[in-house]
Amino acid sequence: MRKVLSSLFLILIAGTGGFAARGEGMMKISSPDFTHEGDIPAQFTCQGADISPEIRIEGVPQGAKSLALVVDDPDAPVGTWTHWVVFNIDPATRVIPRQTVPGIQGWNDFGRMDWGGPCPPRGVHRYFFRLYALDEGLGLRPGVKRGELEAAMEGHILAE
Known about the structure:
By secondary structure, the protein is mainly β. The protein has 1 helix and 11 strands. The radius of gyration is 15 Å and the shape is globular.
């Protein structure tokens, strides 16, 4: 059985189960489906139903016009593997329910425009959920690649 670990963000907020972000507003992202650095249950991976987990968002800064979410695995044998790209998420969003699409999707490294759950070929991998608050909506088309999204976000990130 392959083991997958989650990292909802980089800094643990003690006692809250949430994770802080850099930038003004102390934006937080968490999930009731797994804990920071805990195992991601099989239902969210290729070993199960491969559905996206519930994601909770707090502290979106005032002035945010949209959010973007990128999920990746920096431990993939071929380099960082992108599992999900979603942008133009309404900044008023506080919960992204399981198996829903909150905005416009880009291509992941599975060659699909949807959630591609953890599916490591071997070993323990980490998965990072990166949320960005932007000062504008992005005029990008569905199916952009992660690099295009990151280029469009440049200079527009209020918090991450």
